[in-house]
Amino acid sequence: MKVKCKSYFPLWKTIVLQVEKLKSELEEALLSEKQLKHKVDHLKDVIASKSEELHIMSERVQETMSSEMLSLQLELQSLEQGKTDLEDRLHDLQYSKEQLELGNSNLTNRVAWLEEEKEERERDLFSFCNSLEEAREINRDLQVQLDHALQQAHDFPSQGNSLFAEVDDRRVEMERQLISMKVKYQLLQKQHNFTREQLQRVKLQMATLLRMKGSQGEHDQLERLQNMLQQKNGEIEELLMKLKQLEKSMKVSENSRELKLSNASEDAEFENGYYIDLLQMKLENSDKEKENLKNELSLQRMKALFESQRVLEMERKLSVTEKQLEACQSKNINLCVLLDELKIKYEPQELMGKLISLKKDARDGPSDSFNISNSLCESSLPFQNKELAQETEADLKTTLQIKSMNVVPLPPIEQRGKKTVKIEVKDFDRTAMHKKIENDAELLQTTRSVSTNMYVQDNQRRPASLFF
């Protein structure tokens, strides 16, 4: 009920204020109505008196009057007119006085009502202060009781050694550990989010840089591989032509041998058996030499295939190392950009000093500043990429040396009569092998020169201003 009364109290006050205002307005309206009625009655009286005067004047005008009487009559009328004006003014002043008195009375009533409201508010405030002090005292008593109860609850020795006390201790420890773990988890989550955002930014930057450089590198590598494929196809065609020629020569040699055998059988009656045995020994020796040459040819082919495979592997390694070099360069650029941002954030004074010194150096000589920027670019490249490039160059050198070592000149064979075909085949094979070795060496040199040109072009394309 008290709460309801408190909620209705402001409504009641507003209604009372509205009623008071309406009362004051009603009193003012009644007073103005009364004044207007009084004015109307007065004007009616004036009109009646004026009509009577006019009637009297008209009657007197008809009668013969003297000029003095007329003048006096006019003066009297003017005086009466002034009197009526003064009376009207007096009535107006009385009306305004009554209105002011009414407004003053309304204001005094309102002041009295406001004073009463103020007193009521002061009483309410005093009662609220008293209730607040009582509530504070009650709160203090309850806090003291709660502290006492907590002390009794934590005072386990007084309660005795019980399992409940140990369980409570463990519960408190676990709660503390849980709170600490929650705090650590929140911190780690924030760090994880921050690092993930940084990684995403770095990945985006890396992707853009690799797209910019990967398009050029892939195009050059495709051209290089296409050139190599064309060269290998040409070599395969040459080898096929050589095989056909060798087969033809073998057929010719076999035909000649058959003819010789037939001739030997015909002339065997006229010649000694010793000469036949000697020819057979020579034929066997030539067959053995032929087999040896075939074996050497197969070995040389295997070596050439092995060397070509090794060259391809080295080129793959070169392409992988170039990609790694580009990735490392892009990482280096990103790290330099991040370092510049951090320097701009935390060490702007040092950067300003460096810029001033660079401006002075540029004024003294632009060539010195260009050399400094080139040296900084070279020093900023990672050492791992240099080591990889050196390893690839060393591997290429070793392959060339192995090729030169593997190509051993064939031992000279004594030229015998009626065996010119075999000697010509041997010389042809040797020249073909030398040509193949020279082609492989030129291919390796071209690949090496292309890779070095790519590396130099990449270093020249990279702007030196990124590292400052």
TrEMBL record:
Coiled coil start-end: 69-331
GO molecular function: enzyme binding; kinetochore binding
Domain of life: Eukaryota
UniProt keyword annotations, A-Z: Coiled coil
Any one GO CC term of the record: outer kinetochore
One BP annotation, GO: mitotic metaphase chromosome alignment
Name of the protein in its database record: Spindle apparatus coiled-coil protein 1
Organism, as annotated: Laticauda laticaudata (Blue-ringed sea krait)
Lineage: Eukaryota, Metazoa, Chordata, Craniata, Vertebrata
